Amino acid sequence: MRRFAPANPLRAAVLIPIVEEEEGAGILLTRRAEDLRSHAGQVSFPGGRCDPESEDPVATALRETEEEIGLARSHVEVIGFLPDHLVISGYQVTPVVAMIAAGYALTPDPIEVADVFIYPLRALFDETQHRTRTRTFVDGDIEVYDLSYEDRNVWGATAGMLMTLYRTVLAGEHV
Fold first, then answer.
1. If residue 155 lies in a helix (H) or strand (E), which one and from where to where?
2. Are 100 and 74 in contact (CB under 8 A)?
3. Is the Cβ–Cβ distance between 109 and 67 less than 8 Å?
4. C-alpha span between 29 and 41 (Å, rounded)
5. Helix (H, G, I), strand (E, B) or coil at 106
6. Which residues pair with 87 in a beta bridge?
7. CA–CA separation, 148 vs 135, rounded Å?
8. Strand arrangement of the beta sheet that strand 152-155 belongs to
9. What is the pLDDT of residues 18-73, one digit of tens each?
10. 171 exposure class (CB count in 10 Å sphere: 0-12, 13-18, 19+)
11. What does the radius of gyration of the chain's CA atoms come to, in whole angstroms?
């Protein structure tokens, strides 16, 4: 059996924040600061490691979102979850899906976040924007997704979670 994550992954959570804009619904994504030790410059959801003693995934996702992009919890309505994602960096990530109320304000932390942008749902549901490629690891090859929108490329765990959201919605399942 191929293994791409450790046997005892650390728990983490991310928020998949869905916003309704004049142009249509979209998902708030961040581009991480270029000088971070890990995942520098990558597109990601706000989120991070769970405090193992006291935090559930919702509390983690809300705390990290508030710290990273300044989105107040009062604007967040959790509507469900996607299945956990095991990622090669050693985490078991719980995607927490939420609707963001109109009138929200963002104050990104410049130490962690270089940019916040909206990835339109219409781009996620445009299959011409879905690309696959093979990544080779010591334990074997896996197929990963790249999702493009304008001049941005979403890849890795973030693209994987977006594709899970895409497949969940297409199947008519609830998050």
1. strand 152-155
2. no
3. yes
4. 12
5. coil
6. 91
7. 18
8. 130-137, 140-149, 152-155
9. 999 888 999 999 998 877 666 656 899 999 999 877 789 999 999 999 999 999 99
10. exposed
11. 16
Torsion of CA 85, 86, 89, 91, to 10 degrees: 80
Other CB atoms within a 10 A radius of the CB of residue 26 amount to 20
Half-sphere exposure of 65 (CA within 13 A, CB side): 31
User: How far is 64 from 17, CA to CA, in rounded Å?
Assistant: 12
Element (H, E) at 166: helix 156-170
- Domains of the chain (ranges; CATH) run 10-170 (3.90.79.10)
Place of tokens 């959570």: 13
Tokens of 153: 């490329």
Stated pTM of the model: 0.89
